[in-house]
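Q: Hi! New to this. If I give you a protein sequence and the SMILES for zinc ion, can you show me the bound structure?
A: Yes, paste them in.
Q: Okay, here:
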Amino acid sequence: MPSVELDLGFEALSVGSLETFKELMIGHGALGSAGEDQWIAATGLSELQKMHLVPLAFGLMPPNLFQIPNHPFRQVKPSIVAHLQFHNADATDVELIEIIKHICDHYVDCVRDPARAARRKSGMRDLKANRQLYDKVMTRQHGRCSLCGVLFSSIVHETLDHVIPYKLLGDPPDALNWQVLCNECNGGKAHYISALQSPEAWNWIYGQVNRDTGSISQELRYVALSSRAKCARVGCDNNAKLKQMHIRRSAGLAAGIGILWNVEIMCEDHLI
Ligand SMILES: [Zn+2]
Ligand SMILES: [Zn+2]
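A: Thanks. Here is the predicted structure of the protein with zinc ion bound:
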């Protein structure tokens, strides 16, 4: 599959930026506890920017990690340094090396014993068992799904999402890598990540994917919500912290397939 360079048209993605990658990983706990300012730096990126940076982790892991996944992998740091040198990256960046080591260690753990990894992975029940942490997470999200802003209730269930996939970062302290999403947003993210841009996510790339002219798939919904933070109505600054956000086909673009440019996000006040 050829790689496709997308002009996404809404915000420049700093894909390839090691500095941004580092900021993102540190903010979500790759080096253990992070300060509030580091967390905020990481959360300044949109959800989609984060998801576009995540695959960089696989480029930074030294290749012998993949060649001999069951081999005792003891020489982690020298392999990382050699790998960075090979790519003309800064092999003296101690923080970067620590981050990659954390990712390698956790990834290898998960790959070696998937059942154990699944048992250890935290879920909503674990978060709820820690009332203080639960309150902290819900307060920073204003009690709403952090992507679409729906208020949680007896019919809208809370699900725990690992912002950076569990396989890479695990469960760092202080809920640094957690956000609470509704089922629909979490489902869309899971599908999106598992395929890392499956045809349905963008719908037009491969030409033949054109299976639906009317509806909005869960993946398209996720892509739109994760890249556009606010209501499309001019002058309205509502976002998911304040209102529930809805997706609809853009007015005047009723024709055409369901792709990102044909949908818009409206807050609950401006839906009609
Ligand atoms: Zn949601
Ligand atoms: Zn609005």
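A: Residues 94-112 form the longest helix (19 residues). Let me know if you'd like me to explain how to read the tokens.
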